[in-house]
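Hi F.,

I've been meaning to write this up properly since the lab meeting, where we talked about keeping a consistent format for the predictions we share between groups. The idea is simple: the sequence comes first, exactly as it goes in, then the structure tokens exactly as they come out, then a line or two of notes. No screenshots and no reformatting. I'm using this chain as the first example so we have something concrete to point to.
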Amino acid sequence: MRRIWVNIDLQKLSLRLWQSRGEPMTVWDLRQWLAEADCVHERGAWYACATTDHLQADEIVEVLVRETIEGITFINRQRRDRQRL
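Output, unedited:
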């Protein structure tokens, strides 16, 4: 079983959606958009997502992938360098 947790820079995401839609996004609008993209709000800024295709690279702060194969869980943590964002 494979699960992806994503720490999203909600300000950058909100700004992109605002620019593309032409109107500001409320917190509830942003959470609804994420829910429609199959992202479930988890602890703090973490979201459990089926895929990250709907996000741009600079909107992703950190990715945590957990995969269990034959009873062994592998964790791959990828942190974006904030200096490059």
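Notes:
The two ends are 31 Å apart (CA to CA).
DSSP finds two helices and five strands in the chain.

If this format works for you, I'll send the rest the same way.

G.
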